[in-house]
C-alpha cells in the first residue's frame, strides 16, 4: 500500500511533516534514504523522496495528478451517538469520501453534545480523521462542522439533494434509488441520520418541509451507525458510477 501523509508545509522543493509523522516514517515504517513517499497538501497530491533521516529531509519530486475524492460534496448530519460510535462513524465517513460531518442534537439523543463537549473531543477526532484520510488516499481532510440543533439543520442546510433515512417510510428503497439515479445538476448531497432512538414523526416532517426527502433503507431496522454507513455506501455507488 502506498503510504500517504498530510504535509504541514511545502516550500522551496522541500516537504515538511509533523513530529508525529517524522517518528512514524523513521521508527515505525523504518524508511530509508532514497525511499519515495506520497503526500497531500492543500487538496493536492505530491511525491517526495527521503534525502536524510537525521534530521529528516524530504525533497519534493513532483505533483501527482490523481483524484480520489467524490465528484460532488457530501455532508453527513449525525445525531450524536455514544463516544465510540461517533468515532467509528467519523473514521468510516472519511473512508467513504464525506467532506463534512456535523453533529446534531435531536429530541431522542441520549448523549447530548455541547460545543464544549465537541471541543474536548476534537484532538481525538482530528487524529482519527488524519489517519483515516491517509489510509484511504484522500487529498483533503474531513471537516467537523460543529454541533447544531435539528431545527438548524432544517433552516441552514442548502445542499442540492437532502436525504433523511426514516424507518417508518414505506416503499422500500425505491425513493432512495430514484433520487440517486437522477443526479444531473446535483453538486451537493446532505444525509441526516438519527440517534439510537430515531427521529420522531414531527422531526421528520420538519425536515421534509425544508426539502429533505424521507427514504427507507430497507425492511430491517438498522442501528444509527449502520444506517449512516449503509446510506453513504449507496450514495458512493451512484455518485461514482456517473
Account of the protein in words:
This protein has 242 residues and is of the alpha/beta class. Helices cover 35% and strands 28% of the residues. The strands form two sheets. The protein has a six-stranded mixed beta sheet. Helix 2 (83-95) runs parallel beside helix 7 (224-241) and helix 4 (150-156) runs parallel beside helix 6. The protein is elongated.
How do the strands and helices of this protein lay out in sequence?
Elements: E1 4-6, E2 9-11, E3 14-16, H1 19-28, E4 36-41, E5 44-53, E6 56-64, E7 73-79, H2 83-95, E8 100-105, H3 115-135, E9 143-149, H4 150-156, E10 161-165, H5 174-180, E11 188-193, H6 201-209, E12 213-215, H7 224-241
Parallel strand pairs: 1-4, 7-8, 7-11, 8-9, 10-11, 10-12
Antiparallel strand pairs: 2-3, 3-6, 4-5, 5-6
Count every beta strand, where a strand is a DSSP E run of 2 or more residues: 12
Order of helices and strands: EEEHEEEEHEHEHEHEHEH
Give the class from helix and strand content and strand pairing: alpha/beta
Helical residue percent band: 25-40%
Average pLDDT over all residues: 93
Low-confidence stretches: none
Strand coverage percent? 25-35%
Query: Strand order, biggest sheet?
Result: 1-4-5-6-3-2
Amino acid at each position: 500500500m502506498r503510504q500517504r501523509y498530510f504535509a504541514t508545509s511545502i516550500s522551496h522543493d522541500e516537504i515538511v511533516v509533523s513530529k508525529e509523522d517524522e517518528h512514524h516514517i523513521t521508527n515505525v515504517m523504518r524508511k530509508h534514504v532514497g525511499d519515495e513517499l506520497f503526500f497531500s497538501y492543500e487538496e493536492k497530491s505530491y511525491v517526495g523522496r527521503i534525502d536524510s533521516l537525521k534530521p529528516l529531509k524530504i525533497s519534493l519530486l513532483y505533483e501527482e495528478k490523481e483524484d480520489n475524492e467524490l465528484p460532488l460534496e457530501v455532508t453527513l448530519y449525525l445525531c450524536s451517538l455514544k463516544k465510540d460510535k461517533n468515532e467509528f462513524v467519523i473514521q468510516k465517513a472519511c473512508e467513504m469520501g464525506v467532506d463534512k460531518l456535523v453533529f446534531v442534537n435531536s429530541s431522542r439523543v441520549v448523549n447530548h453534545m455541547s460545543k464544549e463537549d465537541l471541543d474536548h473531543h476534537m484532538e481525538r477526532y482530528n487524529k482519527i480523521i488524519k489517519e483515516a484520510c491517509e489510509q484511504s488516499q484522500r487529498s483533503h481532510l474531513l471537516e467537523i462542522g460543529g454541533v447544531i440543533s435539528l431545527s438548524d439543520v432544517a433552516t441552514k442546510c442548502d445542499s442540492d439533494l437532502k436525504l433523511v433515512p426514516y424507518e417508518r417510510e414505506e416503499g422500500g428503497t425505491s425513493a432512495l434509488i430514484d433520487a440517486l439515479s437522477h443526479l444531473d445538476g446535483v453538486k451537493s448531497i446532505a444525509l441526516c441520520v438519527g440517534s439510537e432512538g430515531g427521529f420522531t414523526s414531527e422531526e421528520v416532517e420538519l425536515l421534509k418541509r425544508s426539502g429533505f426527502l424521507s427514504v427507507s433503507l430497507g425492511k430491517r431496522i438498522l442501528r444509527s451507525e449502520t444506517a449512516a454507513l449503509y446510506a453513504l455506501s449507496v450514495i458512493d455507488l451512484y455518485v461514482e458510477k456517473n
